[in-house]
Amino acid sequence: MKKLKNFRKLTISEILKEKGSYIKESLETIKKIDKDIKAFITINENADILPGKFSGVPIAVKDNIVTKGLRTTCASKILENYIPPYDATVVKKIKDAGFTIMGKTNLDEFAMGTGTEYSSFFVTRNPWDLTRVAGGSSGGSAAAVASGQVVAALGSDTGGSIRQPAAFCGVVGFKPTYGLVSRYGLVAFASSLDQIGPITKNVEDAAILMNVISGYDPNDSTTVEKNIDFTKFLDKDFSNVKIAFPKEVFGEGIDEGVAQKFQEFISFLEKKGAKVQNIDFPELKYAVATYYIIAPAEVSSNLSRFDGIRYGKRSEKDGLLETYLNTRSENLGPEVIRRIMIGTFTLSAAYYDAYFEKAQKVRRLITKKIEEFFDDFDFIVTPTSPITAFKIGEIKDPLIYYLMDIFTIPANLSGIPAISLPFGFSEGLPVGMQIMGKRFDDAKVLGFARFIEKDIPKVFPFEEDEK
Amino acid sequence: MRFKPVIGLEIHVQLNTNTKAFCSCPADVFELEPNSAICPVCTGQPGALPVPSKEMFEYGILLAAALNCKIHEYSRFDRKNYFYPDLPKGYQITQFFHPLATEGYMELNGKKIKIRRIHLEEDAGKLIHSSETITEAKYSFVDMNRCGVPLAEIVTDPDIESPQEAREFLEKLRQILRYIGVSTGDMEKGALRCDANISVIDTEKGIQSNKVEVKNMNSFKFVEKALEYEYERIVQMMKEGKEVEKETRGWDLSSKKTISMRSKEEANDYRYFPEPDIPPIILTKEYIEDIKSKLPELPDEKLERFKKEYGLTDYEAKILTTSVQLANYFEKCVSVTKNPKETSNWFLTELLRFVTSEDDFEKLNIKPEHFKELFDMIKKGEISRNIAKNVFEETFKTGKDPRKIVEEKGLKIVGDESMIEEILRKLIEQNPDKVQAYRNGKTGLLGFFVGGVMKETKGKVDPRKVNEIARKLLSD
Known about the structure:
The complex is a heterodimer of chains A (467) and B (476). Chain A has 467 residues and is of the alpha/beta class.
């Protein structure tokens, strides 16, 4: 029993040192606590130890990353019974490295949402407060790691879907530079923004996982050939870095507690020797609007394949058009339908120039502005989310939902690396800080995050029940 | 002529690359068992991504170069969105905003037909209905083998001035496709598909009708027929002062008519946008030039060279350059016979009776050396041309040496004049009436006597000699 308690806190690097298998412990923990957390959609009952460097390390995979022979639903009714005929590149890589996939974690349907409330099956609960959301869309992965059911997890991040739930659950979430991790087998939400990344208990594990999952993939033409060792700067001294934060962070919409934590964070950085300076980033206010034109446009096209013809659920009616309409309206959720409709509208011939084309231009503008910041600074920091984990069912207005992504979206629009790092609590709920770096400076972002992490006490939500 | 048709074509060419456009499934799926050449990518499984084939670009560049196009160093793929069961992803990957090539032309009968653009895209699958027609079918099957087969779409300017010219354009296009080896160009097998836009100008009134799109023409003949029909239909409407509707019509094989499919007002909005899964394609100048340098001699160039180099007529050269295979075989034969004109004659009058230009000439029984032997025997007067034709046929069929055939069958011309005289005298004796008629001026009867001798000797005598002797004996 001692081993099981210990297991919930274990990291990849610790298991590597210990050389033991924790598959059984993971399965037991899932069976014991996931009825309350609800992180998993599918549990891999056949989970077994695999050979490899990371043999015996249990990991979870977000349920929008396909796993051969293991149901992949995207938390959508339309794929409720879909068994993929192939493994995603990242899945193949983690299996080859010896990780065991314990199950597939909950998400907002097709990763569209920020609370995992839009899952078609159930809401995932925040391990710190079961009445609150775990964040989203990778809420299941973040909650599974934070509650110690698995050692690490994979998520996907299109507008903050790794970083925001990591922040809400008090774990580390890393979105790599676009193109470093293959998207082959990631069920596309917005292809030009999607990126797979790790959710872990500490920065070192994120770097270790990045070394496993990254790399050029001949099956994904948007991947790049870069041989990065993500652990390279983990022990480096970052006391002399130059850091910027946008003034706009303290604008409307930010929770007082979060703002205060961010102030603390800045003081903390200065104490560590960093030069911190505020910058004007007026374009930030256009980031959300830009994102919510480009992402739905790609959604409207990416989700066309879910038509009930070849796979997935078909709600048949008399006639082809009727079958299409019925299948999609019965088996896709309201948020997904809303985005398909927005995207169909902004791509239509009459509005293409006014919306999609313009949004592309603004995206380039924001990217350029961010690149220019990096001429003078090493990193840009913000809170990961303007708020902490909210109550389940509390937010009804989709616009408020969308605005929550304000700090995370710029990294997706410009393709840069960004990490969310736990930095204390506000009213008992975890607060995450975001560090963004230059394109392909992923190892430096991880190194700097590790440099900070060393001074922050590690706390787990389950300390109480273990006593 | 008061009415003039204005025709533009949109042609889809299946490229016979090894793999499909965006995955490694085979591209040649003709007559394969349904759904046997498919993978997660070409069936649009969740999460699968397209990776463009380099080979497809090589083929596309060759085609664009053969059609004198400007080839762009920057091109890009876009998505064309629409729902149909044969389209697994719900969109087709195509090049809408930035095509591979633009501004080309094809020379046709001394006139330039401008090529507006050539772009690369993927083919869709096939539906197999449970009944003859889609409306009667209770259910349909989807065969996804064809999904992702690379296509080049060629769009011409409306430079074509008659249905016949449209057919000729397509025939020449097929010839070029086969010359450069990028496609079989078989319309019947769907490797070449053509839609046409036609409008008509009333030169008297100075007005032009709306454009009508014609589809479903799956042979060269039907393209011509459908456009002829459509031209007549539009002219008739214009004569009657009726408005020609902007619409899409399909050629109906059974009624030999075009039938309205949909009006342009119901046209789809395809919501084109850049394909985010494929970065823009950047081709270097060197790469384009390298591919272009592999462009073989094209039909027009070969034709001119044949006329000049071998002293052939336009007609002869045209036939001999129909296909690369035929032209190559001809040149191989000439290199042995050293007699282009005679070789050309034998190709045109004999060889092409037995083969088509698309055959594999390397595998023929008759070899270039056989032509030379045959020509030598004719030249030396050892066999007559008629005998030579029979020998040719036998060599063609069996591959047996012509000289051997002549020797074994004793087909050599018999020079003995007394034998010819003897046969002729017998014929004269047996046919006094014909002799009389000849002497009375019916000189055409000479052939009867000559033919008699040829028959009796099985053609082994020199017909010129028979002629000479017959004339002498008959006038005696």
